Request: fold
Amino acid sequence: MGREGVGVRSSWHEGILRRQSARESAARTYARALPIVPVRARGMTIEGADGRRYLDCLSGAGTLALGHNHPVVLEAIRKVLDSGAPLHALDLATPVKDAFTTELFRTLPPGLADHARVQFCGPAGTDAVEAAFKLVRTATGRNGMLSFTGAYHGMTADALEASGNAFDVRVARLPYPQNCRCPFGVSGERGAELAARWTESVLDDPKSGVPHPAGMILEPVQGEGGVISAPDTWMRWMRKLTADRSIPLIVDEVQTGVGRTGAFWAVEHSGVTPDVMVLSKAIGGSLPLAVVVYHEDLDVWEPGPHAGTFRGNQLAMAAGTATLAHVRENGLSERAHHLGTRMLAELRASVGQFACVGDVRGRGLMIGVEVVDPTEGPTPKQHPEPSQDPARPDAARDPRPPAPELAAAVQRECLKRGLIVELGGRHNSVVRLLPPLTISDEQATAVLDRLTDAVHTVARDHAETRPLH
Reply:
């Protein structure tokens, strides 16, 4: 394309961004950090209105398990469109819905699949969370909920109350185990044990101030919380604590589901069978769809107590069926495990050397790099060595403070190199990678190279601009 064509594209691109800024609310988020205008996309690649191409490691916040416009998804959508079938059917039975439900049940953990019911609710994950809360409150006759620090469950009222940034809380908040910033100053199995014992104490202490709850909700891997993976032993402990006390366990698999963590559902790593699973994002194959799957013993709904006008999205169900089947039939969960393990190892070797990187962590193709202030405090260890001081069990006690400004700089440098990444974590200081499960080995290498180069540039620039003392 000639210089004139490039200029036209640039003007078009800038005009769209300018009009968005003038017309849309101040609540927009991704558009601020990622000033691009996607016009075409295929697989992992996005082309902007300015003609630039990007590798997309955001994937619609984890929605695009197969990447953009995957052929099996497009074929499924076209088939419905060409058939003349209704696109909107409320909760009526349709062949498309039956096929989706059959494929979904085929993938569920065995202990749940044989006794499951499914509730189609509104189109977003937060709608499914609201439905799950209403379900367990109705089934138990109790009201309170248990959730965990760092959690993210959506943007509606109850979902926000159960999330880590709530400010008007009617939900009891419990410690979520983590290595880098463990609230007990330890890590690994010991940290998980202390977190579990704290939860047990809260539930059993009549003076804890926490009445017997209607349910407990947790994420097997906290995504927005900073890519923090719960230890499998802790997951099993939570299952036992809740089962022994007749507390329904709700597992939020909105972002972790459909192969993302290296198992089809993240609970499968621990062998836990929850009472309720909240599902959205990837199950719709890029289109809006959300469901609650739960044990039949909880099926106490009266007709109509929880509904939603757009719970019968036929195109989303068709795209979701194609996605679920493709992930299952092609072993993409296993590939996510193996490729994610490789990417984590290579990232630890390539960026772990920088003082501004406090931790590299993840599970499967859900990966996070925590960016810290290299001028403050000791460096947190990715694999802490035992301390000789019994009062300080390991080196995870005093990590360097998070550095959201440096993390944002890494995100900007990635974008300059044609790589789209997300930020998350307690202070928005974790660079997050959520590539599609279809990412190739060559694309994985390109992602790692671009991210490493971006971190190197930020680390160098920060060192050069530090004031001398």
In short: Residues 380-396 have pLDDT under 50 and may be disordered. Residues 3-63+332-465 form a domain with the Aspartate Aminotransferase, domain 1 fold (CATH 3.90.1150.10). The CA atoms of residues 302 and 344 lie 47 Å apart. The two ends are 51 Å apart (CA to CA).
